[in-house]
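Colleagues,

For the teaching module next term, I've prepared a clean inverse folding example: a structure given as C-alpha coordinates, and then the sequence designed for it. I'd like students to try predicting residues themselves before seeing the answer, so please don't circulate the second half yet.
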Protein backbone atom coordinates (compact mmCIF):
# COMPACT_ATOMS: atom_id res chain seq x y z
CA UNK A 1 0.00 0.00 0.00
CA UNK A 2 1.41 3.38 -0.99
CA UNK A 3 2.25 6.22 1.28
CA UNK A 4 -0.66 8.18 -0.13
CA UNK A 5 -3.14 5.80 1.46
CA UNK A 6 -4.98 6.96 4.53
CA UNK A 7 -5.89 4.79 7.53
CA UNK A 8 -8.97 2.79 6.62
CA UNK A 9 -7.94 2.13 3.01
CA UNK A 10 -9.17 5.33 1.32
CA UNK A 11 -6.80 7.12 -1.09
CA UNK A 12 -5.97 10.69 -0.26
CA UNK A 13 -6.72 13.34 -2.85
CA UNK A 14 -3.09 13.91 -3.82
CA UNK A 15 -2.80 15.98 -7.05
CA UNK A 16 -2.08 13.91 -10.14
CA UNK A 17 1.00 16.02 -10.79
CA UNK A 18 2.73 14.68 -7.65
CA UNK A 19 4.83 11.50 -7.79
CA UNK A 20 3.86 9.04 -5.06
CA UNK A 21 7.46 7.93 -4.57
CA UNK A 22 9.41 11.15 -4.22
CA UNK A 23 6.44 13.36 -3.30
CA UNK A 24 7.41 16.11 -5.76
CA UNK A 25 6.11 17.21 -9.10
CA UNK A 26 6.69 14.73 -11.89
CA UNK A 27 10.04 14.87 -13.64
CA UNK A 28 9.87 13.00 -16.93
CA UNK A 29 6.89 10.86 -15.88
CA UNK A 30 6.77 7.33 -17.24
CA UNK A 31 3.83 4.88 -17.27
CA UNK A 32 4.45 1.40 -15.84
CA UNK A 33 2.59 -1.57 -17.39
CA UNK A 34 0.20 -1.45 -14.41
CA UNK A 35 -0.78 2.12 -15.56
CA UNK A 36 0.76 3.85 -12.55
CA UNK A 37 2.98 6.85 -13.27
CA UNK A 38 6.25 7.76 -11.52
CA UNK A 39 9.27 9.90 -12.23
CA UNK A 40 11.89 8.38 -14.50
CA UNK A 41 14.51 8.71 -11.76
CA UNK A 42 12.18 7.07 -9.19
CA UNK A 43 11.63 4.07 -11.47
CA UNK A 44 15.35 3.79 -12.14
CA UNK A 45 16.01 3.52 -8.40
CA UNK A 46 13.61 0.58 -7.89
CA UNK A 47 15.33 -2.63 -6.85
CA UNK A 48 14.97 -5.46 -9.43
CA UNK A 49 12.51 -8.09 -8.25
CA UNK A 50 13.62 -10.73 -10.74
CA UNK A 51 15.59 -10.84 -13.96
CA UNK A 52 14.24 -12.32 -17.18
CA UNK A 53 16.08 -15.15 -18.95
CA UNK A 54 16.26 -15.69 -22.69
CA UNK A 55 13.43 -17.74 -24.06
CA UNK A 56 11.38 -17.52 -20.84
CA UNK A 57 7.63 -17.14 -21.22
CA UNK A 58 5.63 -15.05 -18.83
CA UNK A 59 1.97 -14.04 -18.61
CA UNK A 60 -0.30 -12.39 -16.12
CA UNK A 61 -2.72 -9.56 -15.47
CA UNK A 62 0.12 -7.09 -15.12
CA UNK A 63 1.63 -7.65 -18.56
CA UNK A 64 1.65 -4.86 -21.11
CA UNK A 65 -1.32 -6.29 -23.03
CA UNK A 66 -3.44 -7.14 -20.02
CA UNK A 67 -2.89 -10.90 -19.98
CA UNK A 68 -1.80 -13.88 -21.98
CA UNK A 69 1.62 -15.44 -22.32
CA UNK A 70 4.33 -13.55 -24.15
CA UNK A 71 8.00 -14.01 -24.63
CA UNK A 72 10.27 -12.16 -22.27
CA UNK A 73 12.96 -10.31 -24.16
CA UNK A 74 16.55 -10.76 -23.21
CA UNK A 75 17.78 -8.21 -20.68
CA UNK A 76 14.35 -7.25 -19.32
CA UNK A 77 14.06 -6.58 -15.59
CA UNK A 78 11.05 -7.05 -13.33
CA UNK A 79 10.28 -4.62 -10.51
CA UNK A 80 7.43 -4.12 -8.05
CA UNK A 81 5.13 -1.17 -8.51
CA UNK A 82 5.51 1.13 -5.46
CA UNK A 83 1.76 1.82 -5.47
CA UNK A 84 0.00 -1.49 -6.14
CA UNK A 85 2.86 -3.98 -5.49
CA UNK A 86 2.25 -5.54 -8.89
CA UNK A 87 5.10 -7.34 -10.56
CA UNK A 88 5.83 -5.38 -13.76
CA UNK A 89 8.48 -5.82 -16.41
CA UNK A 90 10.63 -3.00 -17.73
CA UNK A 91 11.61 -2.93 -21.40
CA UNK A 92 15.15 -4.01 -22.39
CA UNK A 93 16.11 -0.38 -22.91
CA UNK A 94 15.34 0.33 -19.26
CA UNK A 95 12.91 2.82 -17.66
CA UNK A 96 13.58 5.31 -20.49
CA UNK A 97 11.81 2.94 -22.87
CA UNK A 98 8.52 3.29 -20.96
CA UNK A 99 5.76 5.46 -22.40
CA UNK A 100 5.71 9.09 -21.33
CA UNK A 101 2.67 10.19 -19.36
CA UNK A 102 1.81 13.42 -21.24
CA UNK A 103 -1.33 13.92 -19.15
CA UNK A 104 0.89 14.02 -16.09
CA UNK A 105 3.03 16.69 -17.76
CA UNK A 106 -0.14 18.70 -18.39
CA UNK A 107 -1.00 18.33 -14.73
CA UNK A 108 2.48 19.51 -13.80
CA UNK A 109 2.00 22.58 -15.94
CA UNK A 110 -1.42 23.30 -14.45
CA UNK A 111 -0.14 22.69 -10.95
CA UNK A 112 2.73 25.07 -11.52
CA UNK A 113 0.40 27.57 -13.15
CA UNK A 114 -2.10 27.48 -10.32
CA UNK A 115 0.60 27.77 -7.67
CA UNK A 116 2.28 30.71 -9.45
CA UNK A 117 5.38 28.67 -10.10
CA UNK A 118 8.10 29.93 -12.46
CA UNK A 119 7.37 28.83 -16.06
CA UNK A 120 10.23 28.84 -18.54
CA UNK A 121 9.97 29.72 -22.19
CA UNK A 122 9.87 26.56 -24.29
CA UNK A 123 11.71 28.28 -27.16
CA UNK A 124 14.57 30.20 -25.58
CA UNK A 125 14.64 28.39 -22.23
CA UNK A 126 14.54 31.59 -20.22
CA UNK A 127 12.13 31.96 -17.31
CA UNK A 128 9.28 34.37 -17.24
CA UNK A 129 6.85 32.85 -19.78
CA UNK A 130 3.73 34.98 -20.03
CA UNK A 131 1.74 33.44 -22.89
CA UNK A 132 1.12 30.11 -24.57
CA UNK A 133 0.50 29.13 -28.20
CA UNK A 134 -2.57 26.87 -28.51
CA UNK A 135 -1.36 25.46 -31.83
CA UNK A 136 2.27 24.86 -31.02
CA UNK A 137 1.48 24.19 -27.33
CA UNK A 138 4.58 26.04 -26.17
CA UNK A 139 5.11 28.63 -23.41
CA UNK A 140 6.46 31.94 -24.68
CA UNK A 141 8.26 34.78 -23.05
CA UNK A 142 7.55 38.29 -24.24
CA UNK A 143 10.41 38.29 -26.76
CA UNK A 144 9.49 34.91 -28.23
CA UNK A 145 5.86 35.94 -28.25
CA UNK A 146 6.71 38.88 -30.51
CA UNK A 147 8.89 36.65 -32.70
CA UNK A 148 6.09 34.08 -32.88
CA UNK A 149 3.76 36.78 -34.17
CA UNK A 150 6.23 38.03 -36.79
CA UNK A 151 6.89 34.63 -38.38
CA UNK A 152 4.65 33.92 -41.32
CA UNK A 153 4.18 30.25 -40.38
CA UNK A 154 2.98 30.98 -36.82
CA UNK A 155 1.45 34.42 -37.24
CA UNK A 156 -2.05 32.98 -37.40
CA UNK A 157 -1.69 30.79 -34.29
CA UNK A 158 -3.96 31.44 -31.33
CA UNK A 159 -1.91 32.71 -28.38
CA UNK A 160 -3.41 33.19 -24.93
CA UNK A 161 -2.16 34.82 -21.79
CA UNK A 162 -1.14 32.48 -18.96
CA UNK A 163 -3.29 34.46 -16.58
CA UNK A 164 -6.34 33.64 -18.69
CA UNK A 165 -5.41 29.97 -18.77
CA UNK A 166 -4.96 29.99 -15.03
CA UNK A 167 -8.44 31.38 -14.53
CA UNK A 168 -10.00 28.78 -16.86
CA UNK A 169 -7.88 25.81 -15.71
CA UNK A 170 -7.59 24.50 -19.29
CA UNK A 171 -4.49 23.35 -21.13
CA UNK A 172 -3.59 21.68 -24.41
CA UNK A 173 0.08 20.94 -25.07
CA UNK A 174 1.55 19.04 -28.05
CA UNK A 175 3.30 15.69 -27.91
CA UNK A 176 6.65 16.29 -29.57
CA UNK A 177 8.95 13.79 -31.17
CA UNK A 178 11.96 12.77 -29.12
CA UNK A 179 14.12 12.42 -32.25
CA UNK A 180 13.07 15.65 -33.97
CA UNK A 181 12.55 18.43 -31.44
CA UNK A 182 9.75 20.76 -32.36
CA UNK A 183 8.02 18.15 -34.51
CA UNK A 184 4.61 17.06 -33.20
CA UNK A 185 3.54 13.41 -33.35
CA UNK A 186 0.72 13.91 -35.86
CA UNK A 187 0.98 10.57 -37.74
CA UNK A 188 0.56 6.93 -36.75
CA UNK A 189 2.65 4.11 -38.24
CA UNK A 190 0.41 1.07 -38.35
CA UNK A 191 3.11 -1.62 -38.88
CA UNK A 192 5.15 -0.26 -35.97
CA UNK A 193 2.06 0.62 -33.95
CA UNK A 194 3.68 3.94 -32.96
CA UNK A 195 2.84 7.65 -33.28
CA UNK A 196 5.45 9.45 -35.41
CA UNK A 197 6.18 12.93 -36.59
CA UNK A 198 6.15 13.85 -40.31
CA UNK A 199 9.93 13.83 -40.48
CA UNK A 200 10.09 10.31 -38.99
CA UNK A 201 7.42 9.19 -41.46
CA UNK A 202 9.49 10.54 -44.35
CA UNK A 203 12.75 8.96 -43.21
CA UNK A 204 12.58 6.07 -40.73
CA UNK A 205 9.07 4.92 -41.72
CA UNK A 206 9.13 5.77 -45.40
CA UNK A 207 8.14 2.24 -46.42
CA UNK A 208 5.42 1.93 -43.78
CA UNK A 209 1.85 2.97 -43.99
CA UNK A 210 1.44 6.09 -41.92
CA UNK A 211 -1.96 7.64 -41.39
CA UNK A 212 -2.96 10.93 -39.79
CA UNK A 213 -3.53 10.51 -36.10
CA UNK A 214 -7.03 11.96 -36.22
CA UNK A 215 -8.05 9.23 -38.73
CA UNK A 216 -6.95 6.21 -36.68
CA UNK A 217 -7.52 7.50 -33.17
CA UNK A 218 -11.21 6.62 -33.28
CA UNK A 219 -10.43 3.02 -34.24
CA UNK A 220 -7.97 2.51 -31.40
CA UNK A 221 -10.08 4.56 -29.03
CA UNK A 222 -13.06 2.35 -29.83
CA UNK A 223 -11.01 -0.70 -28.84
CA UNK A 224 -10.25 0.91 -25.49
CA UNK A 225 -13.85 2.03 -25.03
CA UNK A 226 -15.18 -1.44 -25.97
CA UNK A 227 -12.85 -3.11 -23.49
CA UNK A 228 -13.96 -0.65 -20.81
CA UNK A 229 -17.68 -0.85 -21.54
CA UNK A 230 -17.93 -4.58 -22.26
CA UNK A 231 -15.61 -6.03 -19.66
CA UNK A 232 -14.13 -3.54 -17.25
CA UNK A 233 -17.19 -1.43 -16.41
CA UNK A 234 -19.26 -4.49 -15.42
CA UNK A 235 -16.35 -5.77 -13.40
CA UNK A 236 -15.91 -2.32 -11.88
CA UNK A 237 -19.58 -2.31 -10.90
CA UNK A 238 -19.25 -5.79 -9.41
CA UNK A 239 -16.16 -4.80 -7.50
CA UNK A 240 -17.87 -1.69 -6.17
CA UNK A 241 -20.87 -3.79 -5.13
CA UNK A 242 -18.57 -6.35 -3.57
CA UNK A 243 -16.68 -3.61 -1.77
CA UNK A 244 -19.97 -2.21 -0.54
CA UNK A 245 -20.95 -5.66 0.68
CA UNK A 246 -17.58 -6.00 2.37
CA UNK A 247 -18.13 -2.64 4.08
CA UNK A 248 -21.61 -3.73 5.14
CA UNK A 249 -20.22 -7.04 6.34
CA UNK A 250 -17.55 -5.17 8.26
CA UNK A 251 -20.21 -3.04 9.93
CA UNK A 252 -22.30 -6.14 10.65
CA UNK A 253 -19.18 -7.85 11.99
CA UNK A 254 -18.53 -4.94 14.31
CA UNK A 255 -22.14 -4.96 15.48
CA UNK A 256 -22.02 -8.72 15.95
CA UNK A 257 -18.75 -8.40 17.81
CA UNK A 258 -20.14 -5.73 20.13
CA UNK A 259 -23.32 -7.73 20.70
CA UNK A 260 -21.32 -10.87 21.41
CA UNK A 261 -19.00 -8.94 23.70
CA UNK A 262 -22.03 -7.72 25.63
CA UNK A 263 -23.31 -11.28 25.82
CA UNK A 264 -19.94 -12.46 27.09
CA UNK A 265 -19.87 -9.72 29.71
CA UNK A 266 -23.44 -10.53 30.78
CA UNK A 267 -22.52 -14.20 30.91
CA UNK A 268 -19.42 -13.43 32.97
CA UNK A 269 -21.45 -11.32 35.40
CA UNK A 270 -24.11 -14.02 35.68
CA UNK A 271 -21.52 -16.75 36.05
CA UNK A 272 -19.62 -14.73 38.64
CA UNK A 273 -22.87 -14.26 40.59
CA UNK A 274 -23.63 -17.98 40.32
CA UNK A 275 -20.10 -18.87 41.46
CA UNK A 276 -20.36 -16.42 44.34
CA UNK A 277 -23.68 -17.92 45.37
CA UNK A 278 -22.20 -21.41 45.11
CA UNK A 279 -19.24 -20.29 47.20
CA UNK A 280 -21.56 -19.03 49.92
CA UNK A 281 -23.42 -22.34 49.83
CA UNK A 282 -20.14 -24.24 50.21
CA UNK A 283 -19.14 -22.02 53.12
CA UNK A 284 -22.49 -22.69 54.83
CA UNK A 285 -21.95 -26.41 54.32
CA UNK A 286 -18.48 -26.13 55.86
CA UNK A 287 -19.88 -24.23 58.81
CA UNK A 288 -22.48 -26.95 59.37
CA UNK A 289 -19.76 -29.60 59.30
CA UNK A 290 -17.58 -27.59 61.65
CA UNK A 291 -20.40 -27.29 64.16
CA UNK A 292 -21.21 -30.97 63.82
CA UNK A 293 -17.62 -32.04 64.40
CA UNK A 294 -17.21 -29.56 67.21
CA UNK A 295 -20.32 -30.88 68.95
CA UNK A 296 -19.01 -34.42 68.60
CA UNK A 297 -15.71 -33.39 70.18
CA UNK A 298 -17.60 -31.61 72.95
CA UNK A 299 -19.62 -34.78 73.58
CA UNK A 300 -16.47 -36.88 73.71
CA UNK A 301 -14.87 -34.37 76.04
CA UNK A 302 -17.90 -34.42 78.34
CA UNK A 303 -17.86 -38.23 78.41
CA UNK A 304 -14.16 -38.28 79.22
CA UNK A 305 -14.60 -35.65 81.92
CA UNK A 306 -17.50 -37.55 83.48
CA UNK A 307 -15.63 -40.84 83.44
CA UNK A 308 -12.53 -39.16 84.85
CA UNK A 309 -14.55 -37.51 87.61
CA UNK A 310 -16.28 -40.78 88.52
CA UNK A 311 -13.07 -42.80 88.63
CA UNK A 312 -11.14 -40.12 90.49
CA UNK A 313 -13.94 -39.72 93.02
CA UNK A 314 -14.19 -43.47 93.62
CA UNK A 315 -10.42 -43.91 93.94
CA UNK A 316 -10.03 -40.90 96.25
CA UNK A 317 -12.84 -42.11 98.50
CA UNK A 318 -11.49 -45.67 98.66
CA UNK A 319 -7.91 -44.56 99.36
CA UNK A 320 -9.07 -42.13 102.03
CA UNK A 321 -11.18 -44.87 103.61
CA UNK A 322 -8.26 -47.27 103.66
CA UNK A 323 -5.72 -44.72 104.91
CA UNK A 324 -7.78 -42.93 107.53
CA UNK A 325 -10.67 -45.19 108.47
CA UNK A 326 -10.70 -47.52 111.44
CA UNK A 327 -11.39 -51.17 111.09
CA UNK A 328 -15.01 -50.68 111.93
CA UNK A 329 -15.35 -47.76 109.50
CA UNK A 330 -13.78 -49.75 106.70
CA UNK A 331 -15.99 -52.76 107.31
CA UNK A 332 -19.07 -50.59 107.56
CA UNK A 333 -18.44 -48.90 104.20
CA UNK A 334 -16.88 -51.82 102.33
CA UNK A 335 -20.06 -53.02 100.64
CA UNK A 336 -21.04 -49.71 99.07
CA UNK A 337 -17.40 -49.03 98.20
CA UNK A 338 -16.93 -52.39 96.51
CA UNK A 339 -20.16 -52.01 94.54
CA UNK A 340 -19.09 -48.59 93.28
CA UNK A 341 -15.56 -49.66 92.45
CA UNK A 342 -16.85 -52.79 90.67
CA UNK A 343 -19.23 -50.69 88.66
CA UNK A 344 -16.44 -48.32 87.69
CA UNK A 345 -14.18 -51.22 86.78
CA UNK A 346 -16.94 -52.79 84.71
CA UNK A 347 -17.51 -49.47 82.93
CA UNK A 348 -13.87 -49.49 81.85
CA UNK A 349 -14.76 -52.37 79.50
CA UNK A 350 -16.84 -49.93 77.44
CA UNK A 351 -14.98 -49.73 74.09
CA UNK A 352 -16.53 -46.36 73.47
CA UNK A 353 -14.13 -44.79 75.95
CA UNK A 354 -11.38 -47.38 75.73
CA UNK A 355 -10.75 -46.58 72.07
CA UNK A 356 -11.59 -42.92 71.87
CA UNK A 357 -10.64 -41.38 68.50
CA UNK A 358 -10.39 -37.63 68.25
CA UNK A 359 -12.03 -35.99 65.24
CA UNK A 360 -9.63 -33.55 63.56
CA UNK A 361 -11.82 -32.98 60.47
CA UNK A 362 -9.61 -35.12 58.25
CA UNK A 363 -12.69 -36.52 56.54
CA UNK A 364 -13.59 -33.13 55.09
CA UNK A 365 -12.24 -32.43 51.60
CA UNK A 366 -13.06 -30.21 48.64
CA UNK A 367 -13.22 -31.56 45.08
CA UNK A 368 -12.88 -28.61 42.69
CA UNK A 369 -13.65 -30.67 39.57
CA UNK A 370 -16.76 -32.56 40.55
CA UNK A 371 -20.02 -31.32 39.02
CA UNK A 372 -22.22 -29.47 41.49
CA UNK A 373 -25.40 -28.98 39.44
CA UNK A 374 -26.58 -25.66 38.08
CA UNK A 375 -27.41 -22.22 39.41
CA UNK A 376 -29.32 -19.79 37.23
CA UNK A 377 -28.69 -21.98 34.21
CA UNK A 378 -24.90 -22.02 34.74
CA UNK A 379 -23.11 -25.33 35.36
CA UNK A 380 -21.12 -25.36 38.58
CA UNK A 381 -18.24 -27.44 39.87
CA UNK A 382 -16.81 -27.89 43.32
CA UNK A 383 -18.24 -30.10 46.06
CA UNK A 384 -17.43 -30.32 49.76
CA UNK A 385 -17.27 -34.00 50.70
CA UNK A 386 -17.84 -35.18 54.21
CA UNK A 387 -16.48 -38.68 54.09
CA UNK A 388 -16.48 -39.25 57.84
CA UNK A 389 -18.97 -41.84 58.93
CA UNK A 390 -21.79 -40.77 61.24
CA UNK A 391 -22.22 -43.51 63.89
CA UNK A 392 -25.91 -42.70 64.23
CA UNK A 393 -26.41 -43.33 60.47
CA UNK A 394 -24.33 -46.52 60.25
CA UNK A 395 -26.23 -49.82 60.09
CA UNK A 396 -25.50 -53.47 60.70
CA UNK A 397 -26.97 -56.37 58.71
CA UNK A 398 -26.61 -60.14 58.70
CA UNK A 399 -27.99 -63.15 60.62
CA UNK A 400 -24.69 -63.63 62.40
CA UNK A 401 -25.58 -60.74 64.72
CA UNK A 402 -28.61 -62.53 66.22
CA UNK A 403 -27.92 -66.24 66.60
CA UNK A 404 -25.02 -68.60 66.00
CA UNK A 405 -24.04 -72.09 67.09
CA UNK A 406 -21.35 -72.85 69.59
CA UNK A 407 -18.00 -73.47 67.86
CA UNK A 408 -19.26 -72.22 64.47
CA UNK A 409 -18.17 -69.02 62.75
CA UNK A 410 -20.63 -66.17 62.65
CA UNK A 411 -20.35 -62.99 60.62
CA UNK A 412 -22.22 -59.79 59.90
CA UNK A 413 -21.67 -56.66 57.84
CA UNK A 414 -21.27 -53.03 58.93
CA UNK A 415 -22.20 -50.26 56.48
CA UNK A 416 -20.74 -46.85 57.31
CA UNK A 417 -22.88 -43.90 56.20
CA UNK A 418 -22.45 -40.15 56.43
CA UNK A 419 -24.84 -37.65 57.95
CA UNK A 420 -27.03 -37.73 54.81
CA UNK A 421 -27.41 -41.52 55.04
CA UNK A 422 -25.24 -42.12 51.99
CA UNK A 423 -22.70 -44.93 52.11
CA UNK A 424 -19.17 -43.66 52.60
CA UNK A 425 -17.39 -44.86 49.46
CA UNK A 426 -14.04 -45.49 51.13
CA UNK A 427 -12.56 -47.33 54.04
CA UNK A 428 -10.24 -46.32 56.82
CA UNK A 429 -12.76 -45.54 59.56
CA UNK A 430 -11.89 -46.60 63.08
CA UNK A 431 -14.23 -49.54 63.73
CA UNK A 432 -14.21 -51.35 67.08
CA UNK A 433 -16.23 -54.53 67.72
CA UNK A 434 -16.30 -56.15 71.18
CA UNK A 435 -18.26 -59.33 72.02
CA UNK A 436 -18.75 -59.82 75.78
CA UNK A 437 -20.50 -62.68 77.61
CA UNK A 438 -23.26 -61.30 79.77
CA UNK A 439 -22.93 -63.90 82.55
CA UNK A 440 -19.27 -64.86 82.35
CA UNK A 441 -17.35 -61.66 83.10
CA UNK A 442 -14.02 -62.86 81.73
CA UNK A 443 -15.44 -64.48 78.63
CA UNK A 444 -14.88 -62.48 75.46
CA UNK A 445 -14.86 -63.42 71.82
CA UNK A 446 -12.22 -62.13 69.43
CA UNK A 447 -13.85 -60.23 66.54
CA UNK A 448 -12.02 -59.90 63.24
CA UNK A 449 -12.87 -56.71 61.29
CA UNK A 450 -12.06 -56.68 57.57
CA UNK A 451 -12.08 -53.31 55.79
CA UNK A 452 -13.58 -53.81 52.33
CA UNK A 453 -12.44 -50.27 51.38
CA UNK A 454 -15.87 -49.40 50.00
CA UNK A 455 -17.49 -48.16 53.18
CA UNK A 456 -18.39 -51.66 54.36
CA UNK A 457 -16.71 -53.86 56.98
CA UNK A 458 -17.07 -57.60 57.44
CA UNK A 459 -16.98 -58.80 61.05
CA UNK A 460 -16.39 -62.50 61.77
CA UNK A 461 -16.08 -64.35 65.10
CA UNK A 462 -16.22 -67.88 66.52
CA UNK A 463 -17.78 -68.25 70.03
CA UNK A 464 -16.64 -71.21 72.13
CA UNK A 465 -19.22 -70.89 74.92
CA UNK A 466 -22.97 -70.92 74.63
CA UNK A 467 -25.05 -68.19 76.20
CA UNK A 468 -26.05 -64.56 75.70
CA UNK A 469 -23.50 -62.05 74.49
CA UNK A 470 -23.42 -58.24 74.13
CA UNK A 471 -22.00 -57.10 70.79
CA UNK A 472 -20.54 -53.59 70.94
CA UNK A 473 -20.16 -52.00 67.48
CA UNK A 474 -18.50 -48.57 67.61
CA UNK A 475 -17.39 -46.24 64.84
CA UNK A 476 -15.06 -43.44 65.84
CA UNK A 477 -15.64 -44.35 69.51
CA UNK A 478 -19.42 -43.93 69.15
CA UNK A 479 -22.01 -46.71 69.26
CA UNK A 480 -23.76 -47.30 65.95
CA UNK A 481 -27.52 -47.38 65.83
CA UNK A 482 -28.82 -50.35 67.92
CA UNK A 483 -25.50 -51.05 69.67
CA UNK A 484 -24.96 -52.98 71.90
CA UNK A 485 -26.70 -55.91 70.20
CA UNK A 486 -27.90 -59.11 71.92
CA UNK A 487 -26.36 -62.28 70.47
CA UNK A 488 -27.58 -65.78 71.35
CA UNK A 489 -25.00 -68.56 71.01
CA UNK A 490 -26.67 -71.98 70.93
CA UNK A 491 -25.00 -75.19 72.06
CA UNK A 492 -23.41 -77.33 69.42
CA UNK A 493 -25.89 -79.61 67.61
CA UNK A 494 -25.57 -83.38 67.51
CA UNK A 495 -25.20 -84.27 63.87
CA UNK A 496 -27.66 -86.64 62.26
CA UNK A 497 -26.28 -90.05 61.29
CA UNK A 498 -29.04 -90.90 58.83
CA UNK A 499 -30.67 -89.39 55.78
CA UNK A 500 -33.34 -86.71 55.54
CA UNK A 501 -35.87 -88.46 53.26
CA UNK A 502 -39.53 -88.79 52.39
CA UNK A 503 -39.89 -92.52 53.15
CA UNK A 504 -37.67 -95.62 53.28
CA UNK A 505 -39.55 -97.28 50.39
CA UNK A 506 -38.84 -94.44 47.94
CA UNK A 507 -35.40 -93.66 49.23
CA UNK A 508 -34.22 -97.27 48.94
CA UNK A 509 -35.94 -97.81 45.62
CA UNK A 510 -38.27 -100.46 47.14
CA UNK A 511 -35.80 -102.41 49.33
CA UNK A 512 -37.72 -104.41 51.96
CA UNK A 513 -34.85 -104.48 54.50
CA UNK A 514 -34.53 -100.67 54.57
CA UNK A 515 -35.53 -99.38 57.98
CA UNK A 516 -36.28 -95.95 59.47
CA UNK A 517 -36.24 -94.55 63.00
CA UNK A 518 -39.77 -93.21 62.60
CA UNK A 519 -42.65 -95.43 63.80
CA UNK A 520 -43.97 -95.93 60.27
CA UNK A 521 -44.58 -99.40 58.79
CA UNK A 522 -45.62 -100.93 55.45
CA UNK A 523 -47.40 -104.22 54.74
CA UNK A 524 -45.89 -106.85 52.52
CA UNK A 525 -42.75 -107.56 54.49
CA UNK A 526 -41.28 -104.04 54.29
CA UNK A 527 -39.50 -103.08 57.50
CA UNK A 528 -39.51 -99.34 56.89
CA UNK A 529 -42.03 -96.55 56.38
CA UNK A 530 -44.05 -95.66 53.32
CA UNK A 531 -46.29 -92.79 52.23
CA UNK A 532 -49.78 -92.74 53.75
CA UNK A 533 -49.12 -95.89 55.78
CA UNK A 534 -49.36 -96.42 59.52
CA UNK A 535 -46.93 -94.34 61.57
CA UNK A 536 -45.59 -92.25 58.65
CA UNK A 537 -44.93 -88.64 59.90
CA UNK A 538 -46.57 -87.21 56.79
CA UNK A 539 -43.51 -85.12 55.86
CA UNK A 540 -39.78 -85.64 55.18
CA UNK A 541 -37.82 -86.72 58.23
CA UNK A 542 -34.45 -88.04 59.41
CA UNK A 543 -33.99 -91.79 59.12
CA UNK A 544 -31.73 -91.83 62.18
CA UNK A 545 -34.10 -90.26 64.69
CA UNK A 546 -37.32 -89.46 62.89
CA UNK A 547 -37.03 -85.71 63.48
CA UNK A 548 -39.01 -83.79 60.85
CA UNK A 549 -36.82 -80.62 61.01
CA UNK A 550 -33.90 -80.79 58.66
CA UNK A 551 -31.66 -78.31 60.50
CA UNK A 552 -32.13 -79.72 63.97
CA UNK A 553 -30.30 -81.60 66.69
CA UNK A 554 -30.35 -85.36 66.60
CA UNK A 555 -32.11 -87.20 69.47
CA UNK A 556 -30.06 -88.25 72.51
CA UNK A 557 -27.92 -91.34 72.24
CA UNK A 558 -30.30 -93.34 74.46
CA UNK A 559 -33.00 -92.95 71.86
CA UNK A 560 -30.64 -93.68 69.00
CA UNK A 561 -29.54 -96.93 70.61
CA UNK A 562 -33.09 -98.23 70.38
CA UNK A 563 -32.66 -98.37 66.65
CA UNK A 564 -29.59 -100.09 65.27
CA UNK A 565 -27.48 -97.60 63.39
CA UNK A 566 -26.72 -100.19 60.80
CA UNK A 567 -30.41 -100.76 60.07
CA UNK A 568 -31.18 -97.08 59.36
CA UNK A 569 -31.48 -95.91 55.80
CA UNK A 570 -28.12 -94.69 54.44
CA UNK A 571 -29.19 -93.70 50.97
CA UNK A 572 -29.05 -90.17 49.72
CA UNK A 573 -32.00 -87.86 49.92
CA UNK A 574 -34.20 -87.70 46.83
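(Answer key — instructors only)
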Amino acid sequence: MSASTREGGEESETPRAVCKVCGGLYREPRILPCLHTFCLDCISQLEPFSGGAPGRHRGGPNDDHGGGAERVEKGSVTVLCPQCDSEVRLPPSGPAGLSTDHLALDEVFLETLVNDGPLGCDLCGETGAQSRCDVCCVNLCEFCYQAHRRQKRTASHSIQRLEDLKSRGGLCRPVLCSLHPGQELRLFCQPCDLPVCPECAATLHCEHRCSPAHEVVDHHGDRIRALISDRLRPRLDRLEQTLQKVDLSQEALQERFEATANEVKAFARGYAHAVETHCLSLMRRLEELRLQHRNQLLLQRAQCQQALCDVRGGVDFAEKLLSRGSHAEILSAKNVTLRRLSFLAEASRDPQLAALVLDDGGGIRFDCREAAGEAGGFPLVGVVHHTMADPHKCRVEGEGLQQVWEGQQGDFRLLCCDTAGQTVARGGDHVLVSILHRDMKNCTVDARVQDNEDGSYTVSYTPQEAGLYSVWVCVRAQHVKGSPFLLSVQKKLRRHAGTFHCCSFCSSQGAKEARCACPGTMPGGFQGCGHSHKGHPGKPHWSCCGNTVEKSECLPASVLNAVSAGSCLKTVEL
